[in-house]
Design a protein that fits this description.
Layout (H helix, E strand, L loop, with lengths): L40 H4 L7 H9 L8 H6 L4 E7 L11 H11 L5 E7 L7 E6 L2 H5 L15 H7 L3 E6 L1 H10 L7 E6 L8 H11 L6 E6 L4 E6 L4 E5 L5 H4 L5 H4 L11 E4 L8 E5 L2 H8 L5 E4 L3 E2 L3 H12 L6 H14 L2 E2 H22 L4 H4 L2 H7 L7
Parallel strand pairs: 2-4, 4-5, 5-9
Antiparallel strand pairs: 1-10, 1-11, 2-3, 6-7, 7-8, 9-10, 12-13
Bound molecules: flavin-adenine dinucleotide and iron/sulfur cluster.
The site of flavin-adenine dinucleotide has 35 residues, from α4, β2, β4, β9 and β10.
Length: 399
């Protein structure tokens, strides 16, 4: 038997559930180590080996042009737009563009399976990664599970099933590890549909966030940090609860985000073929980034189901970002009346569209840069990519 028939990784053993992962406390539980692909962890793990340039070249046949400010912020892309489904999918996170593309790909036989994440029977937010083979199984995965999710834990099943054409839906750290092992999966074609991701939490961390922030944590079915600077909680009875960002209990919540997410610089999912989020779009719309021809092929499938409009940009984020850096650092929490007032003012005059996306990227990258500098100084230079260093350099940071 040749090494091609029996690649080395098949001799490796998945790590035991709950055992310490190679990335230690920085592990985002992406799932790779739950499979024999753990064999590649030292090169593949997003928190051990930062390799955006190599993987961008492999995925898009191009790297970010650092002279192009839009690429510095949003990564390699051919096209950006705002979009929404004419008939939104009920219960989807936004209008369900992600689920709709996955369903079209299955219906047209472009892929045999879709890696996505449903929830466990016991817990609506408990992640349960699956390989969906029917539209019903894709639909059952709609809406965010706002916790770390081991999506790549199903990778061994792909090889065993003999599937050759696959769609993977996932967030940045999962997609970085996926791209690093892509050539070992034995696929003829891999499609990658990504979402932006930031401030993720463990399941316990999610409970702390809900308990600290919502008036009725047990009935929350969905939440999102919206472009109107408020967290929107949707409850079982259909009601919506709004909490201004500036009223969040920063002191209590400071340690709630996973260390992996506090040291992540892949907010915009740089290695996906197509990215569907919301933060660069006007309120109520989704934000689409087509990174390469494969991404375009995927978006074209739902062309007749969506309305689109060009992206816009309005306002100037810089002063707000600069002011928020020491405020977050000191864990300042405003009284609710002041937070509401500030929310109203910022919504009126604050950044919108792409400028809102830049506001969010700047705020998170400066915070994460400080975190890595303080907690893992020995990793700072190699772990923070050049595009993120450029973004951070625009601001004055505390020590
Ligand atoms: P739907 O049709 O409802 O499908 C959602 C898909 O997400 C499903 O296929 C499911 O498999 C997948 N999914 C759910 N939970 C996870 C998970 N934990 N890990 C991996 N995949 C998952 N967009 C922004 O613009 N800015 C943000 O700051 C931002 N933060 C996010 C944080 C998290 C943890 C997640 C999962 C997404 C985030 N997004 C963010 C993306 C955004 O919230 C929507 O998911 C996206 O716009 C798609 O909406 P939709 O209605 O098309 O998705
Ligand atoms: Fe393994 Fe993924 Fe954790 Fe890295 S982030 S240690 S690849 S499970």
């Amino acid at each position: 038997m040749t090494s091609v028939d029996f690649p080395k990784h098949k001799k490796a053993k998945a790590l035991k559930p709950g055992s310490r992962r190679p990335a230690k406390e920085l592990c985002s539980e992406c799932g790779l180590c739950d499979t024999y692909y753990v064999h590649y962890v030292k090169e593949a793990c997003a928190f051990i080996n930062q390799q955006f340039e190599t993987l961008e070249q492999q995925s898009h046949a191009a790297t970010r042009n650092l002279d192009n400010p839009d690429e510095v912020y949003f990564g390699v892309h051919q096209e950006m737009m705002a979009a929404r489904k004419q008939q939104p999918i009920e219960g989807a996170q936004w209008t369900g563009i992600v689920s709709s593309i996955a369903i079209e790909m299955l219906n047209r036989g472009m892929v045999e399976g879709v890696v996505c994440v449903q929830n466990t029977k016991e817990d609506r937010f408990g992640p349960m990664p699956v390989i969906a083979r029917t539209p019903e199984e894709v639909l059952a995965a709609r809406v965010n599970k706002p916790t770390l999710s081991p999506n790549l834990s199903v990778l061994e099943q792909i090889e065993q099933s003999g599937m050759k054409r696959l769609l993977v839906i996932g967030v940045g750290c999962q997609i970085q590890a996926l791209r690093a092992v892509e050539k070992q999966l034995g696929l003829e074609k891999l499609y990658v549909l990504g979402t932006p991701c930031v401030d993720n939490v463990t399941r316990a961390g999610l409970q702390k966030f809900l308990d600290t922030t919502s008036k009725s944590p047990d009935t929350v079915v969905y939440y999102e940090f919206m472009q109107d600077f408020r967290v929107h909680f949707k409850h079982e009875d259909g009601s919506t609860e709004l909490v201004p960002f500036f009223g969040l209990n920063t002191k209590e919540l400071k340690d709630v985000f996973a260390p992996s997410c506090m040291s992540c610089f892949d907010y915009v999912n740089s290695l996906a073929d197509l990215v569907v989020g919301y933060m660069g779009a006007p309120f109520g719309w989704q934000w689409i980034l087509v990174r390469n021809d494969t991404g375009k092929e995927m978006l074209d499938l739902v062309e007749d189901q969506i309305d689109t409009q060009p992206v816009m940009s309005q306002g100037d984020r810089k002063a707000a970002v600069q002011q928020s850096i020491p405020a977050y650092d000191k864990g300042v929490t405003l009284p609710m009346w002041a937070a509401k007032l500030m929310g109203v003012v910022i919504e009126k005059i604050g950044p919108k569209g792409l400028e809102y996306a830049r506001f969010s990227i700047d705020s998170h990258f400066t915070r994460n840069y400080l975190y890595v500098k303080r907690q893992y100084p020995e990793k700072l230079e190699a772990h923070v990519p050049e595009f993120a260093k450029r973004i951070v350099r625009q601001y004055k940071l505390p020590n």
